[in-house]
Design goal:
2 domains, five-stranded mixed sheet, about 40% helix
């Protein structure tokens, strides 16, 4: 998806919902600051968004310009209505969103996730495609490792912080392997778990990652 295509999606979402302010939370949010982002960062053909003031209207986005809609069949890309709960984000993310002007006359604007907050949400999701996305952000030097680590450290929930840290290790290790700089054996969830001792029935040191 290109930035012009994202603008088209949000403009159509505005018509469908009769709203003018949207939050873009998916990978295409990168287009707000990097319209010429590498293709690997914008290969998804869906624009994930919800209306700021009426998130419940997201269903109208799916119904009118969603996957397999006439809009999708005509243009080859589509809108995906999401909710504020779809992405796990760090404190203060709303103040850091990047405004993308869609239609100045009608006052339509898309508030796109700042790229480090976007990476944080990908770490929280923790899917293979998310690790690849983060790896490409690092490969093309679009995000700062230190900023990501600081965001991870702000997570108040210990379980979430642990998950973010674990997935950050997986994502960076996967990138190093792709570039031929890391160990040949892939870093996986099981390889990051603490080993269990087998000294006897009463010897059961707990797994620090909770087995998740």
């Amino acid at each position: 998806m290109t930035r012009d295509q994202l603008i088209h999606v949000i403009r159509a979402a505005a018509v469908a919902t009769n709203e003018t302010s949207f939050v873009v939370i998916g990978s295409q949010a990168i287009l707000a600051t990097h319209p010429d982002a590498p293709r690997s960062l914008r290969h998804s053909m869906e624009g994930d968004a919800y209306p700021v003031h009426s998130p419940e209207k997201s269903i109208l986005i799916d119904g009118s310009i969603g996957e397999n809609s006439l809009f999708h069949q005509t243009h080859g890309y589509y809108g995906h209505g999401v909710s504020p709960e779809t992405a796990t984000l760090p404190d203060g993310w709303k103040e850091r969103t990047i405004p993308l002007q869609i239609d100045t006359e009608r006052g339509i604007v898309a508030h796109c996730l700042e790229k480090h907050d976007l990476a944080y949400s990908k770490l929280a999701a923790g899917r293979e495609k998310d690790f690849d996305f983060i790896g490409d952000l690092l490969k093309f030097r679009l995000i700062n490792r230190g900023k990501i680590q600081r965001l991870i450290n702000t997570a108040q929930d210990a379980t979430l912080r642990e998950k973010l840290t674990r997935n950050w290790t997986i994502a960076t290790s996967k990138l190093e392997r792709r570039e031929g700089r890391g160990p040949k054996s892939p870093v996986t969830l099981s390889s990051l778990q603490s080993p269990r001792r087998t000294g006897g029935p009463g010897d059961s040191r707990p797994n620090t990652l909770g087995g998740r």
